[in-house]
Specification:
Blueprint: H1 2-17, H2 19-43, E1 58-68, E2 71-80, H3 92-110, H4 117-123, H5 131-150, E3 159-171, E4 174-186, E5 192-200, H6 205-217, E6 225-228, H7 234-241, E7 246-249, H8 251-259, H9 264-279, H10 284-293, H11 297-306, H12 321-324, H13 328-341, H14 350-370
Parallel strand pairs: 3-6, 6-7
Antiparallel strand pairs: 1-2, 3-4, 4-5
Helix pairs in contact: 1-2, 3-4, 3-5, 3-14, 5-14, 6-7, 9-10, 13-14
């Protein structure tokens, strides 16, 4: 008790000097104490207490970070040898944590060669993990994943962003690159919403149309603009699946692909002119003349081929142009996937991949649908 009082006094002292840092430390101290109390309740005993009611033993703690309005907190999550420690402190964070643990443990049991998987499992305090425990953990998460992916799309969706990112998945004893298709929509309130995620072998017209059919079967309607990269097959499948909708070639992807056709010594000056033309349609001829004058025949042909699909965003309100001309919103989500899965070299199954990325999506989606609007709607 005396130690606790000393800690509080120190935090108050910090608070008087720096209220922001002091508040952060106070919240950390409080949440760590909440978890200690949760551990006591789950074990039915205090640390080192001798009692017949004891249900298990402590196994140290794991450092976990939690983003809050007070900054990123560093918390110490208790570990229990006999069963997983459960806490309300991390709430949504714990959902992703469970998914990560289930994938790593499943990899461990199946002998998948993920980087340092043995060390990771030992750090989880579960060296002797059972198949039944992993199955129970996975089943609980899989049900939530199914509910999220199969939910009805109630609101009309005017704009959708689509993309595919690749992950290594074990299949028939071999590692294969699988494409994770993701779709983000902007609902009638102008807020972002993650609509779907599915796994396919690659990116083809047939597979993209299948992905779109699944979305429409769940209620997707009202699509006016589809924003994506220029992967072969997307434009045609969009035209067939969403009659009357326009397709917008993401400017970032277009610039990236165009740059590959320009010698390095000319890239800086030429790409600046092309960038200006993408933002101002009246400069198209200037960009084309520049490409021709510099002898960049292939780059000129590419610009001429795609420019009708580079300006469709301009039909939807000037205040929304910056949001509608790139797939940046999806790129940021893909980066989050990569960040959270970097310790996993290969997934043991397609379902384990979905289990992890969809739990991440669920957390992001909850923030988006209750957060600020991404697009201004008619009447704003």
């Amino acid at each position: 008790m005396q130690d606790q009082l000393e800690v509080v006094k120190e935090i108050i002292s910090i608070f008087l000097k720096d209220s922001k840092e002091g508040k952060k430390q106070l919240v950390e101290w409080f949440l760590n104490n909440v978890m200690e109390e949760e551990a006591r309740i789950q074990l039915s005993s205090l640390p080192y207490e001798r009692t017949q009611e004891r249900k298990g033993y402590r196994n140290g703690s794991r450092t976990r970070k939690l983003k809050t309005v007070n900054g990123e907190l560093e918390l110490k999550k208790p570990q229990i040898r006999e069963f997983p420690f459960e806490t309300k402190v991390f709430d949504r964070y714990s959902r992703v944590e469970k998914a990560m643990d289930s994938v790593i443990l499943e990899s461990y049991l199946q002998g998948v060669s993920t980087r340092n998987v043995k060390n990771i499992v030992e750090s989880l305090g579960m060296e002797n993990v059972s198949a039944s425990y992993v199955s129970t953990l996975a089943s609980e998460l899989d049900e939530r994943v199914r509910e999220f992916l199969d939910r009805r799309i109630e609101s009309p969706i005017r704009f959708i962003y689509i993309d595919a990112t690749y992950f290594k998945v074990r299949e028939d004893g071999k590692y294969r690159n699988k494409a994770l298709y993701v779709c983000i929509g902007i609902n009638s309130e102008g807020r972002r919403e993650i609509l779907s995620a599915r796994i396919y072998d690659s990116e083809t017209e047939v597979e993209w149309e299948s992905f779109f059919d699944e979305l429409k079967n769940r209620g997707l309607r009202g699509v006016e603009l589809v924003i994506s990269d220029g992967h072969r097959g997307i434009q045609e499948s969009v035209a067939r699946s969403f009659l009357g909708a326009a397709w917008q070639y993401c400017h970032v992807h277009f610039m990236r692909n165009l740059q590959k056709l320009i010698p390095k010594k000319k890239q800086s000056s030429v790409m600046q002119i092309v960038k200006q033309a993408l933002e101002n349609e009246s400069l198209i001829s200037t960009a084309q003349d520049t490409l021709v004058r510099e002898g960049l025949e292939k780059a000129s042909e590419m610009f001429e081929r795609w420019y009708p699909s580079l300006y469709n965003y301009r039909a939807f309100g000037e205040s929304n142009h910056r949001r509608l001309r790139t797939t940046n919103v999806l790129e940021r989500l893909n980066l989050e996937f990569k960040r959270r899965t970097k310790k996993i070299g290969a997934f043991p199954s397609e379902q384990s991949l979905l289990r992890l990325v969809v739990t991440i999506m669920m957390d992001v989606n909850e923030e988006w649908i209750t957060g600020r609007r991404y697009i201004k709607t008619e009447g704003d």
